């Protein structure tokens, strides 16, 4: 009897197992869902790669900007060591020895259109205050004219004359006079 029960159970279980074996593969809906999941995963990976590439490009651009700013600072520091043009007594024409200095300033200003300069005109103490103010202005304008002719924008350059009011060297010697007859390019 025990054997009959086992046989009956086996006979009943065999078709059930067979039916389950036939239907155990994924359904069309399950396959579509799996394909959709894989497509979404690939899209997410592609988007992550694209975002990583964009971040890399932005970081490289920021690095280039930083390097350019540092180079601009170094160039400006070098120019500030050569910012003075000296003039002969009672003259406002630029000596040819100062052309290279002014050319460096002009090139820097053209590369950096956001930079501005004030050209200060100065004189020694000889002459009346009114005359020295006018002479200092002519000296500053000579420097301005050189820069403008070299291609610098007029919006980057202004002039001011101090006449004899701000001497570089105190005294009445020829050396002091020569040091005070100048045009100075001051970056803002």
UniProtKB/TrEMBL annotation:
Keywords: Cell cycle, Cell division, Cell outer membrane, Lipoprotein, Membrane, Palmitate, Signal. PANTHER family: LIPOPROTEIN YIAD-RELATED (PTHR30329:SF21), STATOR ELEMENT OF FLAGELLAR MOTOR COMPLEX (PTHR30329). The Tol-Pal system is composed of five core proteins: the inner membrane proteins TolA, TolQ and TolR, the periplasmic protein TolB and the outer membrane protein Pal. They form a network linking the inner and outer membranes and the peptidoglycan layer. InterPro entries: Bact_OuterMem_StrucFunc, OMP_bac, OmpA-like, OmpA-like_sf, Pal, Pal_lipo_C. Pfam families: OmpA. GO terms for cellular component: cell outer membrane. Part of the Tol-Pal system, which plays a role in outer membrane invagination during cell division and is important for maintaining outer membrane integrity. Belongs to the Pal lipoprotein family. It comes from the Bacteria. GO terms for biological process: cell division. This is Peptidoglycan-associated lipoprotein. It is found in: Cell outer membrane.
